[in-house]
Write a structure and sequence with these properties.
By secondary structure, the chain is an all-alpha fold. It contains nine helices and no strands.
């Protein structure tokens, strides 16, 4: 919490600093920034701040939030009428994939449950396999490499939807996977050292046996 306090201070400094620059330029002041976010929160959450408003559940609240944002974009002169309008292109691509699919789902464009998503994931993996096979016959073909990249992108995009359906943060899931791999690989290295060998001197099947020993020695993460 001490580190969090310091990081929040760094964030606040940026807000104060830019607000002061704007004030010196005759644009707005820090108080205007505070007023703007308060107004936005009230405007986008009428079910909280207006007694006559009501939402059935979190999903309906999300849909209302997106409708409010769409009206704000239109009022600001944005001519993009797509339900996907306003999704920032500077986001990490995992986050952008989630946002794109959440927006599309607000108009019903979504799989009904996880079953078709898994089927689609298998389909996309088979397409990746086919592109690998094609590339093996012409490894320098840039068009084939572009197609392989495209198909791998489809796999990742569908995986993002699977995470969304499971209510799993894909960034957190990948972080856990990274930590698990690193932990097990370091254990492999330690076990090999105890046996007086290095992993690099072993064939893959022997390395796999060390991996199995590392995995077997773990207590599963809750």
């Amino acid at each position: 919490m001490h580190d969090l306090r310091d990081e929040l201070g760094d964030l606040l400094l940026q807000v104060v600093f830019h607000a002061r620059m704007a004030q010196e330029g005759g644009q707005f002041a820090f108080g205007d920034v505070v007023a703007a976010i308060c107004d936005k929160m009230e405007r986008r959450h009428p079910h909280v701040f207006a007694a006559q408003e009501h939402v059935a559940d979190a999903a309906e609240q999300t849909r209302q939030w997106e409708r409010h944002k769409q009206r704000e974009r239109e009022a600001g002169g944005d001519s993009d009428a797509s339900v996907l309008a306003g999704i920032a292109r500077g986001l990490p691509e995992w986050q952008r994939a989630l946002k794109l699919q959440k927006r599309a789902a607000t108009v019903g464009f979504d799989w009904p449950d996880h079953g078709p998503v898994l089927d689609k994931l298998h389909e996309e993996i088979e397409e990746v396999r086919a592109e690998f096979d094609a590339l093996s016959t012409a490894p320098d073909d840039t068009a084939l490499r572009a197609r392989l990249e495209d198909e791998i992108g489809d796999v990742l995009f569908v995986a993002a939807n699977l995470a969304l359906r499971a209510k799993v943060d894909p960034g957190a899931a990948l972080r856990h996977a990274n930590a698990k791999f690193e932990r097990r690989f370091r254990t492999m290295e330690a076990l090999a050292r105890e046996d007086g060998v290095t992993l690099s001197s072993l064939p893959l099947d022997a390395q796999d046996r060390y991996w199995d020993r590392a995995k077997a020695g773990e207590v599963e993460r809750p």
